[in-house]
């Protein structure tokens, strides 16, 4: 008898899990999606210029290669269309419950099953798989006076398309990847754009290109071309980009490339100084964009580096004075280290996951947590990448979960042993010491205590090897 599986989230992770269950002939699953459609972060982020900084042919499932990408780096509409196509092709729609947010999941020890609660009631499942991701809950800054602003204000991940920005004064608070994408588009129509920067980011050019009909036709009819291109992109990311984050041979090359990009696009020495980071490249996420710097040099754009003191009815006040605005866009990221929040997850003996993670989220292989049987995480702690495609990591994790299902079906609920978790923690900390993320900068990779809870500190080839199949000795079984 197949286990019943609750999948939380219908983004890349949740859809991948459901597809592999379908391919294995397991139809006893339900996808709970709090939003009105599939796509996860690619459904939510519809701001102007939204797109991905991973090449399209790598930012897709290996088992569902897509030959119709129109650009080297895909935009949000194309990525969302790809995910919707996958949901349709594999017949997932009947098992997706949209607008249904999971509020709690509790392991019932007497039954050896999970009680999953939504506003519609409670259901029992053998297995819970979280596919909520790391970038799903927008984070607003804590600035005095925010409710006092008289104009329109919204987070970049909740873009208000009813607002026409033509000729208006727009304040953009934040300068990360989302801001770098939306600022050039907003600057083309707005009367004035003030970009409020707290910390500069390293930026490298984005070698984007359009795939014409001839290229798409070749990818479609000559499969080895697409496979070869995907493999080349993957190998480059592993061979050149990962060493740059690990203090390897390409670290200096990354810095030189970023500085050359800055000097080539920004001629004003004062503006260039404001945009030059004081930490090594990769400590924070490197922005890959070729339009951001030119936008900052426009006559209607001003980079503001004075600290913000408060928001007033008229605009944004800094230590240098008031900057009047009609619209405020908060491009301030996400609650990236609050994994699974605000869902209340309760395991054996009444243990609450939020309490277990009070010092920082952690999971064995980023997938399993002691005292929480049959709970599996996709895109969990320490599985984010700064150099390659997260879709690769998700496929590894889904393959691992699929490998666990026969074990728990035969031997009962399985949970990772604390000693296995301890060994994993030690090896992770040792590997983390070699990475650039601990170089003293603040980033969304770290929690408030400065611990890196999000990123994977080794090549993805290592992760693929250690997740190829579950090791039963690392788990204990209830039966």
From TrEMBL:
UniProt key word Repressor: no
Q: Name one Pfam family in it.
A: FMO-like
> Which InterPro entries does this UniProt record tie to the protein?
FAD-bind_Monooxygenase_sf (IPR051209), FAD/NAD-bd_sf (IPR036188), Flavin_mOase-like (IPR020946)
This protein's source sits in the domain of life called: Bacteria
Q: What is the residue range of the signal peptide feature?
A: none
Q: Which keywords fit this entry according to its UniProt record?
A: FAD, Flavoprotein, Oxidoreductase
Q: Quick check: keyword Oxidoreductase in the entry?
A: yes
Family membership: Belongs to the FAD-binding monooxygenase family.
Q: What is this protein called?
A: Cation diffusion facilitator CzcD-associated flavoprotein CzcO
- Native species of this protein? Streptosporangium brasiliense
């Amino acid at each position: 008898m197949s286990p019943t599986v609750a999948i939380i989230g219908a983004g890349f992770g949740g859809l991948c899990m459901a597809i592999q269950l379908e391919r294995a002939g397991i139809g006893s699953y339900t996808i709970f999606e709090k939003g009105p459609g599939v796509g996860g972060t690619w459904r939510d982020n519809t701001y102007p210029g939204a797109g991905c900084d991973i090449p399209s042919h790598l930012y897709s499932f290996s088992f569902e290669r897509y030959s119709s990408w129109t650009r080297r780096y895909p935009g949000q509409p194309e990525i969302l269309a790809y995910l919707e196509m996958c949901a349709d092709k594999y017949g997932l729609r009947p098992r997706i419950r949209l607008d249904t947010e999971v509020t709690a999941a509790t392991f019932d020890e007497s039954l050896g099953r999970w009680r999953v609660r939504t506003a519609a009631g409670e259901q029992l499942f053998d297995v819970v798989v979280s596919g909520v991701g790391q970038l799903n809950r927008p984070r607003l800054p804590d600035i005095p006076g925010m409710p006092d602003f008289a104009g329109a204000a919204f987070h970049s991940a909740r873009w208000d398309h009813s607002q026409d920005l033509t000729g208006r004064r727009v304040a953009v608070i934040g300068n990360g990847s989302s801001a770098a994408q939306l600022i050039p588009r907003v600057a083309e129509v707005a009367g004035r754009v003030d970009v409020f920067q707290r910390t500069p980011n390293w930026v490298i050019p984005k070698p984007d290109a359009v795939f014409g009909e001839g290229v798409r036709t070749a990818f479609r009819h000559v499969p080895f071309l697409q496979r070869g291109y995907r493999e080349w992109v993957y190998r480059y990311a592993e061979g050149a980009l990962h060493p740059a984050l690990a203090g390897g041979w390409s670290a200096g090359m990354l810095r030189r490339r970023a500085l050359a990009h800055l000097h080539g696009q920004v001629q004003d020495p004062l503006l260039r100084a404001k945009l030059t980071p004081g930490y090594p490249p990769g400590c924070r996420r490197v922005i890959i964009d070729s339009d951001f710097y030119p936008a900052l040099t426009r006559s209607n754009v001003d980079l503001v580096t004075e600290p913000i003191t408060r928001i007033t009815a008229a605009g944004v006040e800094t230590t240098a004075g008031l900057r009047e605005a009609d619209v405020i866009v908060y491009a301030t990221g996400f609650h990236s280290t609050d994994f699974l929040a605000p869902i209340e997850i309760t395991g054996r003996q009444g243990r609450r996951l939020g309490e277990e993670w009070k010092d920082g989220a952690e999971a064995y292989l980023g997938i399993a947590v002691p005292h929480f049987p049959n709970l599996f995480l996709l895109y969990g702690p320490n599985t984010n990448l700064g150099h390659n495609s997260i879709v690769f990591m998700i496929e590894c994790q889904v393959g691992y979960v699929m490998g666990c299902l026969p074990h728990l079906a035969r031997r009962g609920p399985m949970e990772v042993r604390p000693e296995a978790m301890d060994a994993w923690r030690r090896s992770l900390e040792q590997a983390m010491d070699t990475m650039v993320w601990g170089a003293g900068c603040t980033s969304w990779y770290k929690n408030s205590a400065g611990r890196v809870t999000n990123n994977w500190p080794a090549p993805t080839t290592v992760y693929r090897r250690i997740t190829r199949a579950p090791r039963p000795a690392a788990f204990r079984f209830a039966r």
